[in-house]
Amino acid sequence: MLNSDALDLLFHNGRTFSAWQDRDVDINLLKQAWDLAVLGPTSANCEPMRVTFIESAEAKARLKPYLAEGNVDKTMAAPVTAIVAQDLEFYEKLPDLYPHTDARSWFAGKEDAIKTTAFRNSSLQAGYFILALRAQGLDCGPMSGFDNAKLDADFFAGTPVKSNFLINIGYGDRAKLHARSPRLAFDQGAEIL
Ligand SMILES: Cc1cc2nc3c(=O)[nH]c(=O)nc-3n(C[C@H](O)[C@H](O)[C@H](O)COP(=O)(O)O)c2cc1C
User: Fold this and answer.
1) Could you report the per-residue pLDDT of 121-131, keeping only the tens digit for each?
2) Whole-angstrom Cα distance, residue 22 to residue 57?
3) Do the domain assignments include residue 51?
């Protein structure tokens, strides 16, 4: 079992941040978070998540026009913004990632299976990644408010990669948080049959 400090870091004090301390993010922490996140399970170990870290002022300016208006200031202020994406040709790596059977053939040429599997598992991996970033002491601000098609045409043109959502990453300014919104109680969201 995790101790209460670890539970606080990952869950009780883990919040969605929009304001950031003036503190750089060590790129090694992002790499360590990646190494943790990829240990989370995906179907057939397909690992479709791809991440583009936007750090330079130049790359931030490139990202800016695709953001929903309410997401512009927080994203421009964040030390790093991750474009969490999905590789629609993830199955080409299955001979390495799931070598004990021909898992590539479960997907090649099967558009529905590719789309469902890439979206499901890249979203799962993104969740693992948020917790892994928190485990490195970082804070996150996930966002789906942006124009996926336009962003993809700029950042991923000519590739099988499509954006899923964005995560601002840094050290959050806790003083600027609003009160935590309520969560569903077990009985409101779960049942035991
Ligand atoms: C996939 C995803 C997309 C989100 N998109 C946006 C967004 O576009 N803009 C925004 O301000 N917040 C966005 N949020 C933030 C959520 O509203 C926030 O995580 C939720 O209310 C929980 O807040 P808390 O972590 O502080 O408890 C998004 C969160 C997730 C996980």
Assistant:
1) 999 999 999 99
2) 15
3) yes
